[in-house]
Amino acid sequence: EVENELPTGEPDHGFVRGRDRETDAEYRLRYQNSFTDAGKATLHAIEAGVFNADPGIESVDAEEIRDVGDGYGVNVTVLAPEVDDDVIAEAIFDTRAAGLDSFGEEQGEVVLDDDSTKVEYFDRADRATVEVDVTIEAEDGLSDDAVDRLKDRIIRYVGGEDTDDISYPGLGIGEDVVYDQIFFRVMQTPGVVQADVFIGREGEIPDDENIDIADDEVAMTGVDEVTVNEQ
Description:
Elements: H1 24-36, H2 43-51, E1 59-67, E2 71-79, H3 85-95, E3 101-103, E4 106-111, E5 117-124, E6 126-138, H4 144-158, E7 160-161, E8 167-168, H5 179-187, E9 192-201, E10 217-222, E11 226-230
Parallel strand pairs: 2-3, 2-5, 6-10, 6-11, 7-10
Antiparallel strand pairs: 1-2, 4-5, 6-9, 7-8
């Protein structure tokens, strides 16, 4: 007979709760990138190559440029506020096809084998912080764990760092935040019978409408931005 005097994983006793090495969402993202990253020149391969170049790169979008006057190539937009320009430039250089140009307002240098340098151009996206205010009615009330799982569903859809400190890319660059998608994730929570949900940009009055995201923005939220109250 064995008696466990200290409950396993109880934070009050100084334990840290365990987790899987990676979540299903993380595995799916890595799995998809493992195939696209193996190729070269395709837009998906460029996106995967740049995304995997540095952990600080949170979102990537690549678009093909076909313009008789400007040339032919690719425009890469990244959300990576802490990543150096040269790191992004090198990732673009390593994945785009030879003979193509890169376009954008930002630039970084790549050092070639002969010690010469090549300039690559790209754009940086701005973070659009999304706040979510949820008031729920539950049959028997929700535990703290259930509230965390509710928050995580919302964060994984929009994008950001969840209650387990895992970062999710969520929506892509320029993708609007759809109100019904957030409301659906709230109602997925077991025990919730009714909910009032309001969303909005940081500093704005929350509403029950979609949030428009510009082509050079990425929607992101987090634990502090998602508020859950019970009636």
